[in-house]
Design a protein that fits this description.
With about 190 residues, the protein is of the alpha+beta class. The chain is built from 4 helices and 13 strands. It has helices spanning about 25, 75-80, 110-125, 140-150; strands at about 5, 15, 20, 35, 40-45, 60-65, 70-75, 90-95, 100-105, 155-160, 160-165, 170-175, 180-190. It is globular.
Length: about 190
């Protein structure tokens, strides 16, 4: 999976899983730069520009999904995007797509993700007689899964500057009509 993280740039270095980026240096860059992390994923970092939503504290995470139905844990990406929460009380995680969503669930057992993906497929089957069709073809089952199995947003309290999730909880992006390029917006609330 390719992950592109667009961040609001501050003066502090950005930790990318073992490697650190010098943000003052990135502020001088005018275009996107490809950055390799120790996990060999590609992360795109785009410097903030005037007039863009992320100039006012909205961070954009861009995901490339690989399958039609796929759950991707994004908890650490959300933490990285939030950075210093400056005393905020909550984080809002929003997905601007009608055939995708976000959900909080257990992150400890990777088999649970497979079980959930299988359950979503069985609860809403592609083989049913659907009538909705758009430019990408028939995808009513994807809309139904997104409506039943997830939400376009989750609100997570912040405690001591971090996500106040339970011991086993994680945040999952839910793809129901992939593979696609998808966005997740993250912001803090006072």
């Amino acid at each position: 999976m390719e992950v592109r993280l667009l961040v609001e740039l501050g003066a502090e270095p950005l930790d990318l899983g073992g490697e650190t980026l010098d943000l003052p240096l990135l502020k001088r860059l005018r275009h996107r730069r490809r950055v390799r992390t120790s996990s060999a994923r590609l992360i795109w970092v785009t410097p903030a520009r005037r007039g863009r939503p992320y100039d006012v504290g909205v961070h954009e995470i861009v995901l490339e999904t690989e399958r039609k139905l796929q759950l991707i844990e994004v908890t650490d990406l959300i933490r990285d995007a939030l950075g210093d929460t400056n005393g905020a009380s909550a984080a809002l995680v929003y997905v601007p797509h009608t055939t995708a969503g976000v959900v909080i669930n257990e992150r400890i057992d990777p088999e649970l993700v497979t079980d959930l993906e299988n359950a979503f497929q069985r609860v809403v089957a592609d083989e049913w007689e659907w009538t909705h069709e758009d430019e990408d073809g028939p995808n009513a089952a994807s809309h139904a899964r997104a409506s039943l199995a997830s939400s376009p947003q989750v609100l997570i309290p912040l405690r001591d500057g971090g996500l106040a999730l339970g011991t086993y909880q994680g945040v999952f992006f839910c793809e129901f009509d992939g593979p696609r390029t998808r966005k997740v917006y993250v912001t803090t609330l006072a």
